[in-house]
Amino acid sequence: MNFLYAAYTATWLIHITYAVTLVRRYQRLRKEIDELKDRQP
Amino acid sequence: MKRAFPILAALTGILLSYALYEALVAAPTEQTMGNVQRIFYYHVPSAWTAFLLFFINFIASVFYLIRRSPTADAIAVVTAEVGVVFCTVVLVTGPLWARPVWGIWWTWDIRLTSTLVLWLIYVAYLMLRRFSTSGQTPVLAAALAVFGALDVPLVYFSIWIFRTQHPQPVIGGGGSIDPRMLHVLLINWAAFLCLAALLCWSRFRLERLQRQVEDAQALESMLAPERSR
Amino acid sequence: MNSLAGITRATLAKDLRLEWRSKDAINSMLFFALLVVVVFSFSFDPNAEESRQIAGGLIWVAFLFAAVVALNQTWARELRNQVLDAYRVSPAPANSLFLAKALGNFIFVTVLEALMTPLFIIFYKLRALGPAWQLIPVALLGTWALVVNGTFFAAISLRTRSREIMLPLLLFPISLPAILGLVNATTFILTGEYSARFWIVLLATYDVIFTIACLLLFETVLHAE
Amino acid sequence: MNQSPSAAAVPPIIEIANLVKQFGRFAALRGVTAEFAPARLYVILGDNGAGKTTLLRSLAGLSRPTRGSISIAGKTDLREVCRQIGYMAHPTLLYDELSAMENLGYFARLYEINDSSRCANVITTVKLDPSLERPVAQYSQGMRQRLSLARALLHEPQILLLDEPFSNVDVRSAHDMVALLASMRSAGKTIFVVTHQATLLAETADEFIWMEAGQIVDRTAHLKTAEAP
User: Is B89 within 8 Å of A14 when comparing Cβ atoms?
Assistant: First the structure.
C-alpha cells in the first residue's frame, strides 16, 4: 500500500517540478524582455 | 486561442481529480496484487502518453528535415521535453510497482528496458540541443531523432530475443482485463493526455517567446558596440 | 558513382597515410584497451567456466571504449587547421568523406581487435566450446555497427561544446541493440549453449538499416553550420 | 544600400539580399544587401567581430544563411557553383603531416583534376618549390600562407575569397601576393580580400567595403587614409 502512495506522490512530484521549471524559465525570459525594452525605447 | 488555455487547464484539473478518485476508490481491487496494482492507472497511461509524444517528435523531425519549418522544430523540442518527463514517471513508477509484486526493483524486461533506452535517447537529444554550438542545431537534433526512431524497433526486437533465452518474471499483461479496470485506465489516460497537452502548450509558448527574445538579443548584440562608441 | 568511389579511395588513403605518420589513434586506442584488460583482470580473477560467461561483455566493452577514442581522433584530425572546410567547399560528395572515415575507423578498430584478442585469451584462459569461426562474422558485423554510427555521431558532436563527451552520450543508447547482439553472440559461441545465429542476423539488420540512414543524412549534417 | 561607384553598367556576379546569420543569441550578419560586379578586386575592412569572416564563409557556402539569400552567377544553391569559388581561410586548411605536393594532390582529387602537372604549376605560381618534401608542419608561417593560397587557386576558380592572406607574411612575399592578385583580377577574376593590412592593396584594389556590426556601412573607391589601420 505504501508503494502505491509512493508511486502517486512521485508522479505528481515529477510533473509539478517540471511545471515549476517552466514557470521559472518564463520568469527569467520576462526579465530579459524587460531589460531589452529598457535599453530600446 | 488564448482563451482556450484556461479552459483546457480547468478541464485537465477536473479530469485528473476524477481520474484519481476512480483509480483509488472506484476501481475494483485486483485479487493477487491487491491495492498496489492501482499504480497501473498512472504507470500505463504515462507510458502511452510518452510514446505518443516521442512519435510526434519523430514526425515533426522528419517534417523539419524536408521542409525546414521552424514550427516543426519547435514542436519537436516541446514533445521531446514533455515526453522525457512522462517517460521519467514511467521509469519511477515501474520499479515501485515491481518491488512489492515481484520482490525486485528492476528486471531486464522487454518493456522496461525499451522504455529506459528510449529515455536515454531523448535525454541525449535534449543534451545535444543544449550543447550545440552550430547555427543549425535543429538539423542535427532532427537527424538524431530519426536515428532514435529507427533504433526503437531494433531495441525491442533484440530484447525480445534476449528474454526468450533468459527466464524472466512474467508481467500480468495476458490479454484479459476487467472491463471496469479498463474504464478507469482510459479515464486516467484521457486525464494525462490533457495534462500533456497543457504542458506542451505552455512549453510551446515559452519556446516561441524564447526565440523572439533570442532574435531581439541577436540584433542588440550587434548594436551595442556601435552605441557605446 | 565513379567519383564517389574514387574520392572515397583518395580520402581513405590520405587518412591511412596520416595515421601511419602520426599513429595518434592507434596508439591511444591500444593503450586504452590494454589498460581496460589489465584493470578487469585485476578486479576479478575468474576460472575458465566463469570467464566464458563474462568475457563477451568485457571484451566488447573494452573495444567499445577504445573505438570511441579512435572516432574522436579521426575527426580531430580534420578540425586541426579546419581542413574539413576545404572538403566542404569542394564539389566532392559528402558521402565519400563519410565512407572513407567509416572504413578507416573500421580498419583501425579491426586491427585493434586482432591485436587485443590474443591478450584476452591469455588473461581469461578462454577456449570456445561453440563454433569459434563464427566469432569472425560477429566481430566484423559488430565492429561495422559501432563504427558506422560512431562516425556519424562524431560528425554531429563536432558542432557541440565538449564534443569528446558528447560522442558516447549520443552513441551508446543508439548502439544498445548492437552491443547486446555482440555480447550475447560472443557469450553463446564461447559457452556453446545456444546458437548465435539470431544475433548475427540482428547485427546484419542493424548494419544495413543504419548504413542507409547515415548515407541519407550525412550530407545534411556535414553542411549544418 | 550604397551604390558601388562604377558597377552600374555590368551585370553583377554576386547578389546578396538581406543576409542574416545568427548563432543563438548572437547575430554575426545583420541584414547585408549588396551587389558585386565581376572582374574586380574588393577589400573588406572592419573591426574584429564586424562580420567579415562570416560574410566570406557565407559566400563560400560554408555557413548557411539564417535569413536572406545569396546568389552567385545566378545560382542560389551555392553547392552548384562551388567549382567557381576558391576559398582561403584564416587557418591554413592544410594537413600538417603531409608535404605540399601530397596536400595539393589530395585536394586535386576532390576537384577531380586529372592533369598531374597542375599541382606543381600552382605551387610555382605562389613561389614555392614543388620538390620540397618536408611536411607542412615544418614550414614557416609565410610559406604556409602561400601554400594555402595555392590550394585555393588549384581548380582555377572565377571567384576568390581570401581571409587575411597577408597575416604573418614577410613584406616581400606580401608584395608578390598582391602582384599575383592584380594579374588575376586583370584576367577577369573577382577577388574578395579580408585584411587588416589594407595599405598593401591601396593602389591595386578597385573598391573598399567597410563593415561594422554585421552590416556594410560604406563602399568607397579609395582607401580613406585617415581611418586606415
Answer: yes
Residue with cell string 528496458? B113
Given this model, what pLDDT does residue C212 score?
A: 96
Domain with D202 in it: 39-63+83-222
In this complex, does chain C touch chain A, defined as having at least 3 beta-carbon pairs under 8 Å apart? Answer: no
CB atoms < 10 A from the CB of C41, how many?
Answer: 17
**Separation between Cα atoms, residue C168 and residue C152, nearest integer Å:** 12
* Full-model pTM: 0.88
Lowest mean pLDDT among A36-40, C149-153, D113-117: A36-40
Residue B113 forms part of a structural domain: yes
Q: Do residues C196 and C188 lie in contact, with contact meaning Cβ atoms separated by under 8 Å?
A: yes
Nearest to C225 among D63, D82, D109 (CB): D63
Question: How many interface pairs between B and C have CB atoms less than 8 angstroms apart?
Answer: 88
Q: Which residues in chain D have their CB less than 8 angstroms from residue B217's CB? A: 25-26
pLDDT in tens, C180-198: 899 989 988 888 877 888 8
- Is there a domain that residue D5 lies in? no
Give the neighbor-by-neighbor strand order of the sheet with D67-72: D26-36, D14-23, D67-72
Beta-carbon-side half-sphere exposure of residue D130 (alpha carbons within 13 Å): 15
Segments forming the whole domain that contains residue A40:
1-41
Facing residue for B216 by CB, picked from A7, A11, A36: A36
* Interface confidence (ipTM) of the complex: 0.87
> Which amino acid, one-letter code, is at B57?
N
Is C14 in the D-facing interface, judged by CB distances under 8 Å?
A: yes
Does residue D4 form part of some domain? no
Q: What is the pLDDT of residues C16-66, one digit of tens each?
A: 999 888 887 788 888 888 888 788 777 767 677 777 788 888 888 888 988
Task: Report if residue B212 sits inside a domain.
Answer: yes
User: How many distinct structural domains can be found in chain D?
Assistant: 1
Residue pair C98/C214 in contact by the 8 Å Cβ criterion: yes
Q: Does D221 touch chain B (CB under 8 A)?
A: no
| pLDDT of res. A41 | 58
Total domain count for chain A? 1
Range of the domain at B195: 11-167+178-217
Quote the number of domains for chain B.
1
Mean pLDDT of all residues in C211-218 = 95
Cα angle vertex D27, ends A25, D24, to 5°? 35
Residues from chain D contacting residue B223 (CB–CB below 8 Å) = 213
Would you list the domain boundaries of chain C?
Answer: 2-222
Contact criterion met (CB < 8 Å) for B147 and C159: no
**Of the listed ranges C1-5, D75-79, D82-86, the one predicted with least confidence:** C1-5
pLDDT (0 to 100) of residue D229: 47
Which are the contacts of D154, defined by CB distance < 8 A and separation ≥ 6? D86, D104, D107, D108, D111, D113, D118, D119, D122
Write out the residues of chain A at the interface with chain B, using a CB-CB cutoff of 8 A. 1, 3-4, 6-8, 10-11, 14-15, 18-19, 22, 25-26, 29, 32-33, 36, 39-40
CB pairs under 8 A between C and D: 75
Distances D88 to C185, D82, D177 between C-alpha atoms, Å: 50, 13, 13
How far is B221 from chain D, CA to nearest CA, in Å? Answer: 6
Question: Which of D56, D110, D162, D163 is the mutation pick for testing C, counting most C CBs within 10 A?
Answer: D110
Q: Which residue has the cell 522496461?
A: B112
Query: pLDDT tens digit string along D206-222?
Result: 999 999 888 898 898 88
Most confident of B129-143, B173-187, C68-82, D80-94: D80-94
Q: Which residues contact B140 (CB under 8 A, 6 or more apart)?
A: B128, B132, B134, C156, C159, C221, C224
Spatial CB neighbours of C34, under 8 Å, sequence gap ≥ 6: C116, C119
DSSP code, position B25: I
CB D86 within 8 A of CB D165: no
Residue D111 lies in a domain: yes
